[in-house]
Amino acid sequence: MKKWGILILSMLLLSLTGCGKTGELRLGTGGVGGTYYAFGNALAQQLGEEETLSLSVKTTAGSAANLRLLREGFVQLAIVQSDVLSDAVNGTGTFAQAGAYEGYAAVAGLYTEACQIVVPADSDIQTVQDLAGRRVSVGEEESGVRKNAEEILLSHGLSLQMLQPSALSFAEAADALEQGEIDAFFCTAGAPTNAVSELAGRRNVRLLSLSEDAVNNLLALGNGYTACTVPALTYPGQTEEVRTVGVKAVLVADAGVSKDSVTAITRYLLEQGEQLRWAAKTTLSTEPEYAVQDIPCSFHEGSAAYYSSKGMTVEVAAGGSAGRISAAQD
Predict the structure, then answer these.
(1) Which of 145, 166, 287, 327 is deepest in the core (most CB within 10 A)?
(2) What pLDDT, on a 0 to 100 scale, did the predictor assign at position 319?
């Protein structure tokens, strides 16, 4: 009887870890109204139909929160910005106090996220410098948006202390802008972003372009930024393209998630991505070269197996989450 008790307890503990998990996997995304959330829901629905993999989509504050939740075992998959992921790998920026994160691995780079600054169309705010003294949402705590906002402001000679900052989700910020409670908000996400599109359908808004010098300064940081534009007509009433910078959205997994599950996810992203692109309204890339380029951490053995089948070699992450006990967060 004692042996049976030990066996049952062992099975229970194993089920609570991410190691070799074959049941439901929890995916950390972002706030409702953001591209992470839309993409996560589309991925969960289509994987359930095509690959019989069950994903439970969790709303979070964003990239830094997702990595923390991944480290603590509350999620097994997460979408994060490449620049935030780099900080986690190196124990810098937001992660300077906690130190370098371990136990997770890259699955694939997904798409470019544009750093967007939204203002009312009739606002007298014409440049980033005009944000000084204004009521501005700079993203939730533990979000990549907050990091981008701080760096964009600094590149224009401003700081958070020179604004009246608030920490709102995309959906909250869109509502606050519509009600006249804030003057602008930062949004790092694939464009078009649902919250911005819906807002633009209710009132006229526009995006601020970054100065050429600021773009060059951000690119010189070497922190995952790329120059990008938001094309004209991305949003209702947007007649001109917007010059800004972007970062790559990356899907990461607990290193202990089963190899077969991650291989199936990687294969679906790169071979069935057209369906996801349409469902989530993203610029998801289905090119394996894009999926592995400029990723600041090693890859999961499951995704590495897929890339190997395509003749590509990537660095494989060591370790996993075996032996770690964690509880689900709903």
Answers:
(1) 145
(2) 60
Contact call for residues 294 and 109 (beta carbons, < 8 A): yes
User: Dihedrals φ, ψ of 214, to 5°?
Assistant: -65, -40
Distance CA 74, CA 212 (A): 41
pLDDT for position 146? 95
Strand 77-81 with 55-58, pairing = unpaired
Q: Which domain does 121 fall in, by range?
A: 114-247
Residues of the chain with pLDDT below 50 are 1-22, 320-330
Between CA 136 and CA 120 the distance in angstroms is 12
* CATH, residue 145: 3.40.190.10
Task: Read off the pTM.
Answer: 0.85
Dihedral pair phi/psi, residue 148, rounded to 5°: -65, -40
A 10 A CB-CB count for 277 gives: 17
Claim to verify: residue 242 and residue 118 sit in the same structural domain: yes
* Distance separating the N- and C-terminal Cα atoms of the chain: 34
- Please state, in angstroms and rounded to a whole number, the distance separating the CA atoms of residues 135 and 139: 12
